[in-house]
Amino acid sequence: MTAMRKITPSEDATGTTPVLRVSVWRGTAEGGAYEEFEVPQQDNQTILDVVSWIQQYADPTLTYRFACRVGMCGSCAMMVNGKPRWTCRTHVKKVTEGGALTIAPLRNLPVIKDLAADMDPFFDKWVKAGGHHHPSASRHDPMPVITSETPGRVEANAGIECINCSVCYASCDTVAGNPDYLGPAALQRAWTLYNDAKEADREAVLDRVSGAGGCHNCHSQGSCTLYCPNELDPLSAIAGLKRASAKRFFKGGR
Amino acid sequence: MLDMRLYMAQRLSAMAMGPFVLVHIAVMIYAIQGGLSASEILSRTQGSVFWFLFYGLFVVAAGLHGAIGLRVIAHEMLGLKGWSLGAITWGFGIGVIYMGARAVMAVTGL
Amino acid sequence: MKGMKTHRDHPLWLAYALHRFSGLALAIFLPAHLYVLSLALTDPARLDGFLHWADLPLVKLAEFGLVFLLAAHMLGGLRLLALEFLPWSGPQKSLAASVLAGAFLISGLFFLRAI
Questions:
Q1: In chain A, positions 123-162, which contact chain C (CB-CB < 8 Å)?
Q2: Residues above pLDDT 70, as percent of chain C
Q3: Which of C7, C73, C93 is the mutation pick for testing A, counting most A CBs within 10 A?
Q4: Which residues bind heme (chain C) (predicted)?
Q5: pLDDT at position A217 over 70
Q6: Could you tell me which of A197, A234, B56, B68 has the fewest CB atoms within 10 Å of its CB?
Q7: Is A1 part of any domain?
Q8: What is the number of domains present in chain C?
């Protein structure tokens, strides 16, 4: 990779180096505004590369969050041209509009500073939906054999590759309108637990997602499934929870 | 703002209204042939137990369904909660069922 | 940020928006509709007067809009019920959607011939 340097406006005018016009949201929870940057365009360049270039060559005070750079950790999601994206694996060429980019912190979450959103509400709801395994056996019991073809395991497997990037949460207008709504990621996690034969109390999973902020608030807008960078399907997982709880309602009346 | 019970009430009233809406639209298309008049409507509906039950149940389902729908919209788009949210839900539901009962009695004469 | 695309630019979100708008419009219209019908009991002459007023082209257009919203809300609701309660696979959903679209095309043609 060749060394990059800051491009001055006079160089842009000659047209020798293609330049991206990038609006970056700057500010804190108290307020802020978009700031314009000009960033040299590369053949191969991700949104995270653009943000890093600004921080390294234009303004070292720019705050953002990333860790792995390869789509594993779920740290770097931001709003790019109005849509939530994992920035480390989103190529500029795929999302740029006439050489322009607008980059903002994730929607539906409080801003810490600049592009770093406070993920606490997202993870709090994950916990509220009971998003951890409740063991049904101890290490002294024999290991139950569950093949990957078991129907429940197939359902669970479809949702377990979530990296907690909060892209679905940011894309969901039901979250935007209803602050108590648990959101697609936490509910999809609950659906994988409900389908896990080793989960101790699967009825309790349905109880946790049937309250005032539960799965029944979902309006099936489908943005979660559309934007999930790992191509998971929270929309169908939430529909599964609705179906399971409705079945239980008819059987047991709760 | 939708818990299990409200959700089931919303979906069950929706399922009940499916056939009602289809028949209602069909009757509407039939009735507007050659213009509408009060006497024409009343001649069809006066004394009919069938239309009394049909529109009676339709009104109850619509009141329930509309009340829960408005409740969701009021919470998500206007940020209402607590007392005012309950007032919208119950006010619309009871209001529609009351006005609907009057209208059904008026057109069937029962 | 004029003309900027948003996370809402996709068919399922538009289906949601149509369902919400049609539902809200119907909820607002319903009390007025029931009030006019109850005039048959209290004041038949005013009901007839209202029905004549309903012959005006603009009112006719509004009525057509309401019937459209009712149909749209019902079809959107059927879509939601199928999505939530029928665990269909992708191809099954596409097949169901195309059968439904075909049925509406045919019934629409007959309807247009009838009026």
A1: none
A2: 88
A3: C7
A4: 73
A5: yes
A6: A197
A7: no
A8: 1
The CATH number linked to A91 is 3.10.20.30
| Residue B57: partners with Cβ closer than 8 Å, 6 or more residues away | B16, B20
Name the residue facing A83 among C7, C12, C83 (closest C-beta): C7
Residue A140 and residue A53 in one domain: no
Nearest to B26, CA basis, from C78, C81, C71, C33: C71
Residues of A in contact with B11 (CB under 8 A): 246
Cβ contact (<8 Å) for C34 and B59?
Answer: yes
Cβ–Cβ under 8 Å, residues B48 and B99: no
Interface predicted TM-score (ipTM) of this complex, two decimals:
0.90
CATH of residue A224: 1.10.1060.10
Q: List, for residues C37-79, the tens digit of each pLDDT value.
A: 887 667 777 777 777 777 777 777 777 788 889 988 998 999 8
- Domain identity same for A106 and A159: no
A4 occurs within a structural domain? no
Closest CA in chain A for residue B73:
A177
pLDDT in tens, A21-39: 999 999 998 999 999 999 9
In a shared domain, residues A144 and A240:
yes
| Any domain includes C104 | no
Identify the domain containing residue A22 by its residue range.
Answer: 9-117
Q: Is the dihedral of CA B48, B49, B50, B52 positive or negative?
A: positive
Minimal CA separation from C27 to chain A, in Å: 18
- Six token digits for residue B67: 């009340």
- Give the burial string for A76-92 (b: 16+ CB within 10 Å, else e): bbbbbbbbbbbbbebeb
Cα A221 to Cα A143, A182, A226, A227, distances in angstroms: 40, 15, 10, 12
- Reference A40, options A54, A25, A23; nearest CA is A54
Domain count, chain A: 2
The residue to which tokens 């009825």 are assigned? A203
The answer to whether the Cβ–Cβ distance between C84 and A243 falls below 8 Å is: yes
In the numeric block, which tokens belong to residue B33? Answer: 């042939």
- Shared-domain flag, residues A61 and A161: no
Q: Was domain B4-26+36-108 assigned CATH 1.20.1300?
A: yes
Pick the more confident residue, A117 or C51: A117
Residue A188's nearest CA partner among A150, A236, A223 is A236
